[in-house]
Amino acid sequence: MERVRRERASTGELDTPAQRPEGSETDLELLVHGVGGTTPEEMLNDPRTVRITGDTTAAVYRRADDVHAETRPDDYRGGPVREAYVWSNLTSGNGTRALWLLLLPFMVVNLAHWMRPTTRGRKRTIRLYGLLVRLAGVTLTVLLVAAVCEVALDLAAWQCAGTRACAREHTWLSFLSPSGSDDGWWSQPGRRLALACLVPAALTGLLWYLSHRTWSAYESQQPMSRGAEPDDETGRTGLGRPGFWYGRRLVARLRAAHTAAGFLTVAAAVGTSAARYDRAPGGPAVLDALGWLLDATLVVGAAVVLWVVCRRGRSENRLDQELDRTLVRWLPLGAIVLLILTLVYAGWSRPDWHSAGRLPGDMTFGGIALVQGLLVIALGVVAHILYRALPNTRTALRGLAGPAVAMLACALGGVMSGGVSQRVADWLDGTRQSIPGPPVLLTWQASAIPPLLLVLVVLIGRLAWRTWNLRRREMSTVKADYKGEAKDTARTRRIASTRAVAALTDRAPLMVGVISSVTLLLGTGALAGALATEDPPGEAARGTYAFVRGAAETAEALGSWLIGFGFILFVTWGRRAYKDPAARRTIGILWDVGTFWPRAAHPFAPPCYAERAVPDLTWRMATWTRATGGRLVVSGHSQGSVLAAAAAWQLKPSERKRVALLTYGSPLERLYGRWFPAHFGTAALTSLHREVACWRNLYRLTDPIGGPVRLPGDCGPQVDSEPFKDPLAHGRTERQPLPAPILGHSDYQADPAFAEERERLLSRLRPDVPGPRPEGDAQGSSGRSSG
């Protein structure tokens, strides 16, 4: 019987609550789990669960006994029916998603788009902020493709295949190597480059395919259609706009532009080398003219790509269901056609052309680094202007979090591109020094890593000192919190240490700000050094003091090793996560936090799971309240509380009044409010508190993620509870005969105070059952809580 019921539920044959008539007096509690995920059986504390709605990716479950709860309201007058929304497969499902780790720079730059400071008005400045981030995203795509071109075209096809000593060591390159009078057809440099360019072209096509495939699974899910609420001065966030979670038009447009940028980068790497040779005195006039025509066409193509990226960004005030089909279809196709014509041009016979030295990679990587630095500086100026319009001391880095994170994204891209180039060069040549190796700029950038790590060590030492001092202060606080219990010094120290380490989350802006600033300064020095001399740092320091020369050589060698080690570490993590479910879940947690936001700056970033989860929750909440007329409690833990808040903002005001929020271990203010103030700032959270029926937030001092919401005035005590005691007992007691664990961010339901707070919230939600108010509740809260 149970099996039949499960099959009927999975096929939609069960009589779901949304199909029942209005007038039900049953309340509903919708549970939303946090990062890492869980099972519906664990959430509902019952081994027998039934899927009410949804699919294998994300679904709502109930206990088997509660499937027809609305038809038996008398059985549920003592408490609400419980449902569990399980969304973990959106991020940490199969092993292929572990490969998203290689797209980390794209994800980070996309986060920078949403980190702009909160402001009023200044729409043009806000658009300029988004434009600068999108341009930074394009440079990252070009950097990635250029790095693969450096490996495949320069190191392999141009340098190694063009050098007999290197080609002999790698037999798979022998058919490309010139061997004297009987040179093969592929031995000419232009043809070698044309063949090698298939590698970066295939990578660009793969990124396009992955972006399009994930678009079909995520951005294609339509939110509920409704009218936009009028903008006012109450601090309403953009997360409540009808089109916020439906950005498929922008993603499609950016995907076309970035795909075209990738193919144009490959065409430039192949075609400009042949055109440079044809411009030499005595070259064929026809090929010389074709070279100039190719360069002009590449410039026009780049201008078109920039025009597409600079066009207006997201449309959030309505469901934008139109697609720029002509643009999306023809822009990548035009770039592919130009690449094919470039391959034909480069493959034309040039018997006297021989490869020597490096391809002009220094100019390419130097130009990308210069543009990225200028974009980050301009982004910092714009962010500062926005922050000055409406300053808030809780905002991370005083509004400069977006530029700092964008700088980190560019640095990650540089580390990955430099790492793969260094390791491939070492693999091809070893210690023979038969080929010139990667561009000098990459060596200068690698030399900047040891000083950066030294700054990082100093910064970690400073944070460790502050943590040690905070632990000393917490020792007395812990003793006061457990007054009357037997004290154990080791136990007290462990609790105090946990609280001190949890407080490090609030120091994250300092870490990001310092690392980004030092990275910008060292990157500027590396670019200046590479432009001033064609030699690596060790050679450039010849003739100076022995100490300076030794330091430069040490930084060069150590940096080259570290940058390669960093890339290998990325690949190793991805490989391990592909095979190991535990490691896959850990990486999935990173995406849970990093891919909450829609892809607004980079289309090749990992997909936004919230574009599926938020509409799921909104549809469930709206349809249930309309069909039953009942009241609803959304109970969200950790990241689930962020999804719950985002879904509540998507409801109509009349439906929002029938919803209560219970959040615990919530990063709504501690992380999202500080780092994304334009959408989760104080004004937005205060507005949410006023618009829902009631809201209660629970947290612990030992929790490194969750924290208080910190609403101003009387709103604060209404929302935030007193910190939960963790652990429940200092030592062994009558109620806790065994040592109680320090729970931190997990198992909030294990605390008896959780059940009390939950019951208090339910009492406030029911107008006919008077219940106790939280201490400090304002006079008018009961009227708002009545829903």
Secondary structure layout:
Elements: H1 2-10, E1 28-32, H2 40-44, E2 49-54, E3 59-63, E4 81-86, H3 104-113, H4 123-160, H5 164-169, H6 189-196, H7 198-217, H8 248-278, H9 285-310, H10 325-346, H11 361-389, H12 401-429, H13 440-447, H14 449-481, H15 489-502, H16 508-532, H17 537-540, H18 546-579, H19 581-594, H20 610-628, E5 632-637, H21 639-650, H22 653-656, E6 659-664, H23 668-675, H24 677-680, H25 682-691, E7 694-698, H26 715-719, H27 752-765, H28 781-785
Helix pairs in contact: 3-4, 3-12, 4-6, 4-7, 4-8, 4-11, 4-12, 6-10, 7-8, 8-9, 8-10, 9-10, 11-12, 11-16, 12-13, 12-16, 12-18, 13-16, 13-18, 14-15, 14-16, 18-19, 20-21
Overview of this protein structure:
With 787 residues, the chain is mainly α. Strand 2 and strand 3 form a beta hairpin. Helices cover 57% and strands 5% of the residues. It is built from 28 helices and seven strands. The protein starts with a helix and ends with a helix. The longest helix has 38 residues, at 123-160. It has a seven-stranded mixed sheet with strand order 2-3-4-1-5-6-7, with helices on both faces. Among the domains are: 1-91 and 609-630, no CATH class; 449-562, no CATH class; 641-652 and 668-787, no CATH class. Helix 4 runs parallel beside helix 12, helix 13 crosses helix 18 (546-579) and helix 14 (449-481) packs across helix 15 (489-502). Residues 1-27, 221-240, 707-787 are annotated as: Disordered. InterPro entries: AB_hydrolase_fold. Residues 1-10, 722-735, 755-767 have a biased composition (Basic and acidic residues).
